[in-house]
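INSTRUCTION: Work out how this chain folds

Token vocabulary: learned, describes local backbone geometry

RECORD BEGINS BELOW THIS LINE
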Amino acid sequence: MKVACAIIENKGEILCAQRSSIMNLPNKWEFPGGKVKNETLEECLRREIKEELGVEIIVLEQLPSNQHNYSKSKVIELIPFRCALQTFEIVLLEHSKVEWLPIEELKTLDWAEADIPIVNYYIKNYK
């Protein structure tokens, strides 16, 4: 299953979203996004961010994806994109909270397993 996620950058900080307690992987941190339906990766990302955070984004660049097996029946390909905000009023429609963190502090969060290699790649290549 293909899943697109947004590394949203703003003024030197990165948007990190905490999954709510009723979602799969409760309270884990992630880059927001979702499953690709009948659409391009960029269309998916713009739709998902609007649905989850109520904001519009600009997709800047695709980064290397990470395949992760949560179980034998649940394998995802997480495809990250660097993004910027087009609108700025975030409304939490799915997540319990968001944090804006400088890149040096990204590793302080308890990330969802599929996001960890993406966090590491981003820190290594964009610090």
Notes: The chain has one domain: 2-126. The domain at 2-126 is CATH 3.90.79.10 (Nucleoside Triphosphate Pyrophosphohydrolase). The longest strand covers residues 75-85. DSSP finds two helices and eight strands in the chain.
